[in-house]
UniProtKB/TrEMBL annotation, chain A:
<keyword id="KW-0813">Transport</keyword>
<dbReference type="GO" id="GO:0030008">
    <property type="term" value="C:TRAPP complex"/>
</dbReference>
<keyword id="KW-0931">ER-Golgi transport</keyword>
<keyword id="KW-0333">Golgi apparatus</keyword>
<dbReference type="InterPro" id="IPR011012">
    <property type="entry name" value="Longin-like_dom_sf"/>
</dbReference>
<dbReference type="GO" id="GO:0005794">
    <property type="term" value="C:Golgi apparatus"/>
</dbReference>
<comment type="similarity">
    <text>Belongs to the TRAPP small subunits family. BET5 subfamily.</text>
</comment>
<dbReference type="InterPro" id="IPR007233">
    <property type="entry name" value="TRAPPC"/>
</dbReference>
<comment type="function">
    <text>May play a role in vesicular transport from endoplasmic reticulum to Golgi.</text>
</comment>
Automatic annotation (TrEMBL), chain B:
<keyword id="KW-0256">Endoplasmic reticulum</keyword>
<dbReference type="GO" id="GO:0030008">
    <property type="term" value="C:TRAPP complex"/>
</dbReference>
<dbReference type="InterPro" id="IPR024096">
    <property type="entry name" value="NO_sig/Golgi_transp_ligand-bd"/>
</dbReference>
<dbReference type="GO" id="GO:0048193">
    <property type="term" value="P:Golgi vesicle transport"/>
</dbReference>
<keyword id="KW-0333">Golgi apparatus</keyword>
<comment type="subunit">
    <text>Homodimer.</text>
</comment>
<protein>
    <recommendedName>
        <fullName>Trafficking protein particle complex subunit</fullName>
    </recommendedName>
</protein>
<keyword id="KW-0813">Transport</keyword>
<keyword id="KW-0931">ER-Golgi transport</keyword>
Length: 145, 180
């Protein structure tokens, strides 16, 4: 199992953080474009899922998968959006995303008065703790291929 | 891994007197810095707003509360979970407007004013106005524009302290301009 990469967006679509671990293929466009594309897709997907759902939903959009990877999504009521791409072996990354939001993002970014809101996160401590957490996840290690 | 590993139950508790006294020092300093009480009220509200926009994330991470679907649910969450978590009190909710877009929080004992007596020359000072800013800032982050104001205050001789909350509108999510 593998973790490919992670995006954190704020409500307005600013990419607050991006990191990647096992990403073998790049999008071939500048990162800024990729962030916009990703956020636009999430935004549309959420509204699509909301409109098409035949019943009331609690969580809304949570994940999708293709033949090669799975995208896991978590949105806080305040509009912070976390996106984690893994391979298909990871069935749910919900707890991991919740942990990243509650214990890393809120603790090290929101509570750090020197991290301005709605701006990419510069905190080195956040980056290293996040990296350590992801590397420690049971499904981090890439499958030998 | 639980959703709130290492958090939630073992919240760092601290003596609220330290908080109360620190707040008192802040208000005192603002009264020295500004000539009239209106400006102090404005500064307190602004500081509260800046606290609120950050506090909401901590609140959501710790309480696991999801989206509120109406203003009544919001009122309950504010009074029973929010105030309880941060100030250790549970205000009562009263005076709903017929349309359900306004209610009052009645604070039995406001911890901010534990040691305060307002001198006569600060009659228009809204001592705890920081709270209004916090409420406004926090709710704005969950897409609710509200107005919060003190309408009664025990410091001014009223029998209770009352914060009036008025729902203004839902803030809609929009795609950033120029993106399709």
């Amino acid at each position: 199992m593998t973790i490919h990469n992670l995006y954190i967006f704020d409500r307005t679509g600013t990419c607050l953080h991006y990191s990647e671990w096992h990403r073998r293929r790049q999008a071939g466009i500048p990162k800024e474009e990729e962030f916009k594309l990703m956020f636009g897709m999430l935004f549309s997907l959420c509204s699509f899922v909301n409109k098409m759902s035949p019943t009331d939903m609690r969580e809304g959009f949570v994940s999708f998968q293709t033949s090669r990877y799975r995208l896991h999504y978590l949105e806080s009521p305040s509009g912070v959006r976390l996106v984690l791409n893994t391979d298909l072996g990871v069935s749910s990354a919900r707890d991991a995303l919740q942990h990243i939001y509650s214990n890393l993002f809120v603790e090290l970014v929101v509570k750090n008065p020197l991290c301005p809101p709605r701006a990419p996160v510069q905190s080195e401590l956040f980056r290293s703790r996040l990296d350590a957490f992801i590397r420690g996840l049971p499904f981090f290690a890439p499958r030998p291929s | 891994m639980s959703r709130q590993a290492g958090r939630g139950t073992e919240n760092k508790k601290m003596n609220s007197e330290l908080f109360t006294l620190t707040y008192g020092a802040l208000v005192t300093q603002l009264c020295k810095d500004y000539e009239n009480d209106e400006d102090v009220n404005k500064q307190l509200d602004k500081m509260g707003y800046n606290i609120g926009v950050r506090l909401i994330e901590d609140f959501l991470a710790r309480s696991n509360v999801g989206k509120c679907h109406d203003f009544r649910e919001t009122a309950d969450v504010i009074a029973k979970i929010g105030f309880k978590m941060y100030l250790g009190i549970t205000p009562s909710i009263t005076n709903w407007s017929p349309a359900g877009d306004e209610f009052s929080l009645i604070l039995e004992n406001n911890p901010l004013v534990d040691f305060v007596e307002l001198p006569d020359n600060h009659s228009s000072l809204i001592y705890s106005n920081l709270l209004c800013g916090v409420l406004r800032g926090a709710l704005e982050m969950v897409q609710m524009a509200v107005d919060a104001r003190f309408v009664q205050d025990t410091l001014k001789g009223d029998s209770v302290t009352e914060i009036r909350m008025k729902f203004i509108k839902r803030i809609e999510d929009n795609l950033p301009a120029g993106e399709e």
